[in-house]
Design a protein that fits this description.
This protein is an alpha/beta fold. It has helices at about 10-15, 55-70, 80-95, 105-115, 160-170, 185, 190, 220-235, 240-250, 250-270, 290-295, 310-320, 350-355, 375-385, and strands at about 75-80, 100, 125, 145-150, 175-180, 195-200, 215-220, 275-280, 305-310, 325, 335-340, 365. It folds into two domains: about 5-250, Aspartate Aminotransferase, domain 2 (3-Layer(aba) Sandwich); about 250-385, Aspartate Aminotransferase, domain 1.
């Protein structure tokens, strides 16, 4: 049976596994070595087995597994999500390149662009992911890529992905999407027509809050460009983290589906709560991109954002009163997490930038875990009592 043609649940468990298995081991062993014997016949540096070259069996197995989940030819893992994003962007842009970038995105990616791109001779323009008619006016002769997020952090906006793919093809751009929030369970960017799909594997793909990792998948040609730069920048993932990521992916489908159900249930409950002024979640009919999300996704992700009627003080008080959600800046783990983006993921933005993007001081981002949703709702109820 060709595992890569099987269903997602099966690929999550079996894709990429070496055949025959290494010494018969069901689980890929951790190759905790920095030196591997090289045959005398090797005459190409890239054929040397070396951890920084991302070619240990651990790299190979997990990279192929992620690629298989998204229907891509090749996959490459990194030491973090930002290592994946920065390396891929620089590799695609090359010398003097210009990027079109969705204005709603993770604060770390935004800071990379606004703080460092100019020093590196690279340029970019922010675009409204909801307004395709405005993109053409920002094209330049050196524009080489268009970059977006499947579900934007932290307001859960859904860009017009079909229009982005069509625009990139029309203008010869490399289309790139950060698929962290949706995961391959809910969205397959390569199938839609994106050239490269990126992940912070720290989040859902690993799912257990115990490693940092990133990934890029796409065609052999595109991934080879990124790999060449990665091998010199050195943002490689260590063997033990590969092992943990590989293990986490095996339960990805069952975890994410449960997290999506929990998120939708909590979002519906909080939308009617008197202490909550607004709930941001694409699974709600009140969300401005709900119909687009229905068209693109089978489920709507495990993250929601809420704004409290009492603003920043009420948000801080809620965090203090909650007992199940942990206050922490990440997402995608089996534990429910809550954070204020203004002091974590988007703290690098100015107050004016956050205001323009709609990221208020009282905004809370909630990443649902796999706990009983009834317990989570009860906890929010007691914590929201005035």
């Amino acid at each position: 049976m060709n595992v890569n043609k099987s269903r997602l649940e099966t690929r999550a468990v079996h894709a990429g596994t070496r055949s025959p298995r290494i010494e018969g081991a069901l689980v890929t062993p951790i190759f905790q070595s920095t030196v591997f014997e090289s045959p005398a016949s090797i005459d190409n540096y890239d054929d040397i087995v070396y951890p920084r070259l991302n070619n240990l069996p651990n790299h190979d197995v997990v990279g192929k597994r992620i690629a298989s989940l998204e229907g891509a030819e090749s996959g490459l893992v990194f030491a973090s999500g930002m290592a994946a994003i920065s390396t891929a962007l620089v590799a695609v842009l090359g010398k003097g390149g210009h990027a079109l970038v969705q204005d709603q995105l993770y604060g770390g990616t935004r800071t990379l662009l606004t703080t460092y791109f100019g020093d590196w001779g690279l340029d970019f323009d922010f675009i409204d992911g909801d307004d395709p008619d405005s993109w053409r006016g920002k094209l330049q002769t050196n524009t080489r890529t268009i970059f977006t997020e499947t579900i934007a952090n932290p307001l859960l906006q859904v860009a017009d992905h079909r229009a982005i793919v069509a625009f990139a093809r029309e203008h010869g751009l490399v289309s790139m999407v950060d698929n962290t929030f949706a995961t391959p369970v809910n969205f397959l960017p390569i199938e839609l027509g994106y050239d490269l799909s990126l992940h912070s594997c720290t989040k859902y793909l690993n799912g257990h809050s115990d490693i940092t990792a990133g990934a890029v998948v796409g065609s052999d040609t595109q991934v080879r460009r990124v790999r060449s730069l990665l091998n010199h920048l050195g943002g490689s993932l260590d063997a033990h983290a590969c092992f943990l990521l590989d293990r986490g992916i095996k339960t990805l489908v069952v975890r994410v589906r449960e997290q999506c159900r929990n998120a939708l249930t909590l979002a519906r409950h909080l939308e009617g709560h008197r202490a909550v002024s607004r709930v941001h979640y694409p699974g709600l009919e009140s969300h401005s991109h709900h119909q687009r999300a229905v068209d693109l996704f089978p489920d709507f992700g495990g993250v929601l954002a809420i704004e409290l009627a009492g603003g920043a003080d009420a948000a801080a008080q809620l965090i203090e009163r909650l007992t199940i959600p942990t206050s922490g800046p990440s997402l995608g783990g089996v534990e429910t997490l809550i954070t204020r983006p203004v002091v974590t993921s988007h703290s690098g933005l100015t107050a004016i930038e956050r205001e323009r993007l709609g990221i208020t001081d009282g905004l809370l981002r909630v990443s649902l875990g796999i706990e009983a949703v009834e317990d989570i709702i009860d906890d929010f109820e007691q914590a929201l009592v005035s």
